[in-house]
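User: I'm putting together a teaching handout on how multi-component assemblies are represented. Below are the sequence lines for each component of a complex, exactly as they appear in our records. Could you produce the 3D structure of the whole assembly as structure tokens, so the students can see both representations side by side? Please keep the chain order the same as the input.
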Amino acid sequence: MADEKDAAAEATPPGGAKPGPVGSPPMTPLEPDKGATPGALPYGKSNTIGPGVAASTTAGKAPAAEGEGVSRRSFMKWSLPVGWVAFSAACASSLVATARFLFPNVLFEPPQSFKAGFPGEYNVGEVDVRWKDAYGVWIVRNAEGFYALIAVCTHLGCSPNWLPAENKFKCPCHGSGFYMTGVNFEGPAPRPLERARIVLADDGQILVDKSVKFQAEKGEWTKPEAFLKV
Amino acid sequence: MATAKPPQPFLSRTWDYITETQIWRSIFRHGMPANNRNRVLVVMSNVFLHLHPVKIRKSGIRLKFTWCMGGLTFFLFLVETFTGLLLMFYYRPTVAYAYMDIVDLAEQVPLGIMREIHRWGAHAMVITVWLHMFRVFMTGSYKPPREFNWNVGVILLVLTLLLSFTGYLLPWDQLAIWAITVGSNMARATPVLGHEGPGSQLLALGDVKMVHAGSDARFALLGGRFVGEGALLRFYVLHCVGIPLVAGILMAVHFWRVRKDGGISGPL
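Assistant: Of course. Below is the structure of the complete assembly, with chains in the same order as your input.
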């Protein structure tokens, strides 16, 4: 590159470089070693900025008649940045696409929300464990209504068990204990279990939506959809 | 040599015949390493040995000095690679098969200790790689010009721990599932990229959070919201292909760099 620039600069007369006329035979540059390069680019005619010595060595290689050529220098001036920008963009978009590939569109997991039967199917004062295996949720019925506890320990994310005899949730990993309300009282768990959105669906069934969570320490348990009054 | 060659014994003649064949000479392109020139050639002309220094100080390889911990770690890596390859012939990384295949590896497959060798080798490798780091630290071998290699070593340590972590899930028993559940939950708190981490709220379009439980760093690692089929397969691929590949390349750099930095450092 540097060579060619220098050569071009040397070859340019002070009056400014004029490309050869339309249909004129390609000119040869001053530098003898440049005679080998014009064939490398289709814009070999850029060498016509020379002082107009008739081409003898390069006539066979360069395009015979090409009209007003773009000089090699001006071609490089815009094509190099454009090329690099395009190349970088292609690399960057491949990278983004590869990263996106790691995030599946379809998950073979139980849905985040599910219908949990009719309110009449639940007994007052009991923790219902039938949805725990499939959806990871306990539904508790107390005197006023229902709430749905997410069965993920707030310590490190294991699944606690409901122990009816001891009237508490107990995590097998590190021994955290929670009351029936979900409030922690023993072990390393730093905060109460999270509750899920629980509402009545149009058909009268209980609808639990795990994607909406209510955290006691944020005062969210008092929000309307954290508790289903009956 | 003597001008009048006495008749050579049969073994000697056979040896001469073998060492003069084109096959032999194309493999061993120099004489016996009996002089310094040939010793250098042995090391320099072998793609594996050339990673190793041609000459090392006698004091630098004293067991008291190196504990041979780097070498032992590499040896254990080779053991893990070989036994792991054999285990792959039997183990299927799916929720339906994984645990039973592990049981079968112990009870039905000939030489049922293969998995145990892999397991104990893994424990040993974690120990030796820590001891290697400890030795390098205590002998000051991390100092210039070896600071680059120290950093390569730190990455290799992390990769060893990641190999250990990913391999932990593969037996797919309760210990494995919950250990990885607990371990991967840490990724929730990744800054910006974890949905419970600091700065994750910054990435949002209006009210819609971009980083949530279904799109954060943990999700990418597990291929799901919890440790399930996706996590098992991803950990398997990382354990068997991804991490060993990177570790292997970095090991080559690590060993080669020991040579380039002037061999094993001398005792203080």
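A couple of points students might notice: The longest strand of chain B covers residues 204-205. The two ends of chain B are 48 Å apart (CA to CA).
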